Amino acid sequence: MTPLPHERELLVNLERNVVIAAIIERRWTIRDSHRDQKGDDRCWVDDYFIYEFLDDSPCMPTTMIPVEVAMNECKLFYEHRRADIPDSVPHDAILDPAEWDRDLDGKDWEHHLNTLVALQKAALRFRNIRLVEKRAITIDDDRALYSILPEKIPADFCLPSEEEFLGEALAPRAGCPAFWRGHLTLCAAGCKHNFHKKGPCSISE
To answer: 50 exposed, middle or buried (CB, 10 Å; 0-12, 13-18, 19+)?
Structure first.
């Protein structure tokens, strides 16, 4: 991800091809790394993919997060970002991924700039929920983030049962405690952790 400012006046001097590339990069990050994750692949650490849109955001930690802190985030995620059924697909949703970015074709510079500014502002609002408002991110905040995409495809917010997600029912294959325990106990000392992946991870990651 190429971090950028969110202020329009700091984006206006970017070259057209840079702006278009940044739009595509951000849209597909939201899609692949956030919205389209399902089940226990949905995780609060993926929020850092969105924070990385911005040039003044904290980076994903690479040193071990205290397990009690990480598990508290997992519990907040389960409490506030879970649904019993997937969101319904609106009648005007664009279902073909090949068509999702057609709105960029043949448009003028102003359209592209406005699109990038809107993405940066959406990322800023999403990031500031935790950093400024200091509240839990909710399922409606996720929906607001995804609404910036032109295709109007909803997410599947269904999660495994509480015991499977937050407990030991599926350990060591799955579940938040097993995930954090893997990084805590299986990674080498001094590991540069990649918390987007299940541990152990190599020191070079």
So the answer is: buried
Query: Quick check: 100 and 28 in contact, CB under 8 A?
Result: no
Tell me the whole-structure pTM to 2 decimals.
0.94
Phi, psi values for residue 58, rounded to 5°: -70, 145
**70 part of a folded domain:** no
Give the structural domain span for 45.
8-59+83-161
Integer Cα distance of 8 and 35 in angstroms: 26
Report residue 54: phi and psi, to 5°.
Answer: -105, 145
Q: Do the Cβ atoms of 130 and 72 come closer than 8 Å?
A: no
> Structural domain tally of the chain?
1
Per-residue pLDDT of the chain (205 residues; tens, 9 = 90+): 999 999 999 999 999 999 999 999 999 999 999 999 999 999 999 999 999 999 999 999 999 999 999 999 999 999 999 999 999 999 999 999 999 999 999 889 899 999 999 999 999 999 999 999 999 999 999 999 999 999 999 999 999 999 999 999 999 989 999 999 999 998 988 899 999 999 888 644 4
Domain assignment present for residue 205? The answer is no
